[in-house]
Amino acid sequence: MEICSYFNFYKGNGKMTTIGKAKVLSASQWSALEEAGKSITHQTIWALLRFTACSSQEVRFLTVESVYADTLLKSVSPYTLQKNVYTDTLQRVVRKAIYFPKQIRKGKKLSISVPITEKLRWYLERYQAPESGYLFPSPRNHERPISYEAIYKYMKEAAVKAGLGDEKVTTHSGRRSLVTHLYNSGASVEIIKEVTGYRSLQNLQSCIDFSQNQVLAAINNTAL
Questions:
Q1: Domain count of the chain?
Q2: What is the domain extent for residue 156?
Q3: Which residues pair with 90 in a beta bridge?
Q4: Which residues have C-beta within 8 Å of that of residue 171, sequence separation ≥ 6?
Q5: Is the model's pLDDT at 175 over the cut of 70?
Q6: Does 80 fall in a domain?
Q7: Integer Cα distance of 74 and 76 in angstroms
Q8: 18-22, 32-36, 61-65: which has the minimum mean pLDDT?
């Protein structure tokens, strides 16, 4: 089970353990990560993590139909001289929101829909999605989703190349980054809960990264 406030890593015996909070990344650090890890597939995964605050499990089990829709477009054929003669073209478009069914949201009782921002839309339009099935299928077996280990390993290798090897960069960084940036930009707790699907205020608060300057400013502004 993924817990937002913890960082996963592998021990020598190949098992995973957790320690510390995942790193909250700035926009420039995400850019550095993308520059180091040039895989469009993994860049799209990272974009989903950082712009929807979904978990790695949710992004792994997303289906093509949850993100894209096929639309019929009518257009005039350039190969005909007849007027008002149209051809139907099936075109895949990115939906307005991503649907996360409760079945893929481990420990969650509700399905949620998260609006797709213009930045996220750019990544999804660039990504060459499969015709159907999982949005990110396993390279070895397209009937299965990409593994968590594959996502984690590629992200850690990119973090090292980007000079972030000493930081606790993990798939939870996407969730913590969005929650923290929303909070710092003045978004209400209700809005953040709606975006992330959190129902517990305690769990939501564990995702917010407070800087020392924020703590100091809060103390200085307290009427004591």
A1: 1
A2: 8-63+98-219
A3: 72
A4: 2, 8, 22, 49, 55, 56, 148, 151, 152, 155
A5: yes
A6: no
A7: 7
A8: 18-22
**Would you say residue 84 lies in a domain?**
no
Q: What is the pLDDT of residue 184?
A: 81
Q: Are strands 97-100 and 68-76 parallel, antiparallel or unpaired?
A: unpaired
Strand runs labelled E in 95-153? 97-100, 112-115
Instruction: Establish if 161 belongs to a structural domain.
Output: yes
Find where tokens 């998260």 sit.
114
For residue 99, report the phi and psi dihedrals to the nearest 5 degrees. Answer: -100, 120
Give the residue carrying structure tokens 């520059």.
35
Q: How many Å is the maximal CA-CA distance in the chain?
A: 82
CB atoms within 10 A of CB 29: 19
Hey, what are 187's tokens?
């978004």
Gap between the Cα atoms of 110 and 179, Å rounded = 19
pLDDT reported for residue 87: 62
- Asked if 171 and 152 count as a contact pair (C-beta separation under 8 A), the reply is yes
Beta-bridge partner residues of 76: 86
| b/e sequence 201-220, b meaning 16+ C-beta within 10 Å | eeebebbbbeeeeeeeeeee
Helix/strand/coil percent split, the chain, to 5: 40, 15, 40
Domain assignment present for residue 104? The answer is yes
This prediction's pTM: 0.76
Identity of the amino acid at 188: S
